[in-house]
Amino acid sequence: MDRDSSPHKVGLHFNFKSVEDHPAGTLSNYPICELETVGNPSILSSFNGSINVLKILVVGSRSTIYLGRLPGQKIEVVLKFASKESVIDEAKAYTENAEIQGSLIPTLYGVLVEAAQEGSPRIACLVLERFGKGLPTSFVELESTEKAKILDMLVASHRSGLLHLAFVENHALVKDSQYRLADLSYVKRHEPPCTWNYKFTEHVGEDACTEDRSSGCEAIWWAAEGMLFWNANKLRLYNSYYVKKNDDFPSQEQVTKMTTHIGSSLGTFYRREDLIELYERYFRAVKIAIEIDKAWHLDKGLTYEPPFPEANE
Ligand SMILES: [Zn+2]
Prior knowledge:
By secondary structure, the protein is α+β, with helices and mostly antiparallel strands. It has three domains: 121 residues, Phosphorylase Kinase, domain 1 (2-Layer Sandwich); 99 residues, Transferase(Phosphotransferase), domain 1 (Orthogonal Bundle); 67 residues. The protein is 24% helix and 24% strand. The chain contains five helices and 14 strands. The strands form four sheets. The protein has a seven-stranded mixed barrel with strand order 1-2-6-7-5-4-3. A three-stranded antiparallel beta sheet has the order 8-10-11. The longest helix has 29 residues. The model has no long low-confidence stretch (mean pLDDT 89). The protein binds zinc ion (ZN). Zinc ion binds next to helix 3. It comes from Steccherinum ochraceum.
């Protein structure tokens, strides 16, 4: 970031009511405030008028994210308010990864700080491109094809030298099935360079990774393992037990809905393998019960209406 650029004044007009305290509410003259650019102001120096701030998107422990609209334009932006130090640090990370802005990470439009008063400025904000939304579900619940796209995006960021040390759902943005990484608060340079060569979108539905975990990249391997990418052909029983999918079992949706407490003998110590054996027996029985119910309906000329989806039937 070019620190020699002279500051440019930028207005922020907060156009919403909030019952809760929020960081921008402490700015001078709130809700009609004036901040100034730090470093190279890029596009923030090119417009007149105020950024219209429409609402709070995310309240975090270290930062608060607002939705804004650039003056005279329909372009939406994200304003991430945090302490000045952390905003400057994160802006540096964006600048160091300029070549992947707009493709793997959002574009940084500039940084604003409260105009100097007594003492040093207290808070600051990053003004970023608004790209899509946060993930609607956990990584584990995503379709395998979407997991693969996210993982390939993560690999591309590694190959560009960015090591994101907080790869969690909140930091993955999605728009039209395209993904980007958000929040560069905890990033490092990938040293030595990433050598991961496996393309996840070419391995959807496979049970094991052909890439050597130690010679590839442990961070990528763990990200895929944490998402259960290689569990696409497994059925999840009781949230954390996996067995190979088989026609003897109901669908995943049915299993999730029909889960009942199993392993009920007070005097028995059930080992993990004992529980898996019991769960498998139980869900085979569930599958038979569903078939009996369907056959009974057929005999009576009635329509069987399942209380759960039958996508895998
Ligand atoms: Zn890597």
